[in-house]
Amino acid sequence: MATNVKLQTWVDQIASMTQPDAIRWIKGTEEEKQELLDAMVASGMATKLNESKHPGCYLFRSDPSDVARVEGRTYIASVKEEDAGPTNNWIDPVELKKTLTSLSTGCMKGRTMYVIPFSMGPVGSPISKIGIEITDSAYVVVNMMIMTRTGDAVLEQLGEDGEFIPCIHSVGAPLEEGAKDSTWPCAPMDKKYIAHFPEEKMIWSYGSGYGGNALLGKKCFALRIASVLAREEGWLAEHMLILKLTDPNGNVKHICGAFPSACGKTNLAMLVPTIPGWKVETLGDDIAWMKFGSDGRLHALNPEAGFFGVAPGTSMESNPNAMLSCAKNTIFTNCALTDEGDIWWEGIGYDAPEHLIDWQGKDWTPNSSEVAAHKNARFTAPANQCPVIAPDWEDPNGVPVDAILVGGRRKTTIPLVHQSFNWNHGIFMGAIMGSEITAAVISDKVGQVRRDPFAMLPFIGYHVGDYLQHWLDIGKATDEDKLPKIFYVNWFRKSEDGKWLWPGYGENSRVLKWIVERCSGEGKAVETPIGYLPTVDAIDRSGLDSVSDEDMAELLTVDKEEWKAEAKSIRAHFTSYGPKMPRELFAELDALEARLNA
User: Do residues 280 and 385 lie in contact, with contact meaning Cβ atoms separated by under 8 Å?
Assistant: First the structure.
């Protein structure tokens, strides 16, 4: 129970509306987590994996209608529609609350209402924030216990009058007395709502039990609501990895990176360098909160305590540190199950056995027409199990940021790496980043560029134009030389015959080395219309025979005609954001076109 009167009053109000059979305050202990897991195994909702293969691990299968974030049912319910902007779904907050109140009345009948006090960031850190999630899902509880710091220590930090973000969640499936529960209760798609109220700093999610729809500390709080708080309070809440890079002489740099999905963000965060003597350690693979320190520099903190990683494609070859992170004490969702009680997914690095139980609980063989694991199958693993977790990953003051990377998946036009001329030009680079739409997305725009400013398109809690203006304003809050340097990287450039020009994975450490050299005032570069590029011999290729001088020249080519077409596309994109699009970014675009035409 809480000593915070505001919190206790709110919990009582939600309980009165949702009408649970019982209320349980989560204390945050391992014993409590184990008790909940054991109960879900007994009910048939979870499967305990083979203890010798994956100790302390469990497999869950979701309903086929509830397998991923549902952007079409995600809303920014600002008081004014114009404040949500063109990239968000908007519903009037008064109307949305009426709908959610109607759906939520009695929605927890037959269930336990869990109250989860959680801290985004280490408890007590000046960068951290506290939330309280109310949920009727034990699956959500055990995932939140991995992904955040939960329990009594958070309530103690909150005290009698501390502020918290209220987060309401229900799977939307009340149980009549004597009725048998589903192994994955949820509501139909048209009854699912993931709602954010930016003026109130409140989250209300109904109908889904999966991932970012239900683990409300993740995208809902740490990005959509935190981005609103960050704008008001003068900091940044970003969809970025944080890594620590140490050179052979012991010099340390910290780098943040924003990449859309399928661009290797987690792989980069846990990189195994191929250059002798260099070391990469991870502080976070998904979210960075950056606040100014007393030194006038931006300091980054990972507000999460775990990894919620995509399983398919993760292997000992592609990301050994992720595989080792989820080797024990991990929750797997929608993976396949072997006859020996182990998990399997496509791209795990070895062939499927002759028989599996697939993610829908059906028999599967290599001759089956469907995949064994859902393409969005996940692992929820404690971050402190990562073999390369940085010792200072929980530093309450965060780590000073030396560089920010932005990037996308482009087979032409964008070079392997280039550096911005200055802060505003770097924000321009972040505003234009994106990836080509592939055949994996059902779309008539295959090959066109889907622009995704700072990889935040689905996660900005307010107008995208105001968001980009906030980045520009951050640059005015300190001296230019104290700001991180900004670089655009593209690991995915191809030759005319369709060959990858850059090997990627651990070899990306060679590009990071050049970035570090540039941050230290070294590193050979040439000025081009789009920014500073490495000279052909600037990136260390010692021992890398697969990239020829000709390949390197192509990787670093700036084709003016391609970029003139790119500029036209950028102008149309900027214009689509409406009158709130910052004039400074149009000025950067004008300057780019002038340099291209010079």
Answer: no
Distance of CA 244 to the CA centre of its chain: 18
Task: Report, as residue numbers or ranges, the catalytic residues.
Answer: 263
- Burial (CB count within 10 angstroms: exposed 0-12, middle 13-18, buried 19+), residue 146: buried
Helix (H, G, I), strand (E, B) or coil at 92: coil
Question: Contact, 313 vs 347, CB < 8 A?
Answer: yes
Pairwise CA distance, residues 593 & 289, whole Å: 34
**What radius of gyration, in Å, describes the C-alpha atoms of the chain?**
24
Strand partners, 150: 118
Residues 216-244 pLDDT 10s: 999 999 999 999 999 999 999 999 999 99
What the block records as the tokens of 476 is 């005015």
pTM of the model: 0.97
E strand intervals along 359-513: 363-364, 378-382, 399-400, 403-407, 417-419, 434-436, 449-451, 485-489
Dihedral sign, Cα of residue 181, residue 186, residue 187, residue 191: positive
Q: Which helix (H) or strand (E) holds 458?
A: none
pLDDT at 311 > cutoff 60: yes
Q: What is the pLDDT of residue 439?
A: 46
CB 454 within 8 A of CB 238: yes
386: confidence class by pLDDT, cuts 50, 70, 90? very high
What is the set of domains in the chain, with CATH numbers?
A: 5-42+71-233 (3.40.449.10), 238-304+393-597 (3.90.228.20), 306-385 (2.170.8.10)
CA distances from 537 to 206, 455, 502, 559 (A): 55, 31, 15, 19
Structure tokens at 193: 């709502």
**For the packed helices 560-576 and 583-597, what is the interaxial angle rounded to 10 degrees?**
160
Whole-angstrom distance, CA of residue 130 vs CA of residue 216: 12
The candidate with the shortest Cα–Cα distance to 432, out of 401, 462, 402, 468, is 468
Write out the H or E segment, with its range, that includes residue 289.
Answer: strand 288-292
3-state secondary structure 308-319: EEECCCCCCCCC
Judged by DSSP in three states, 549 sits in helix
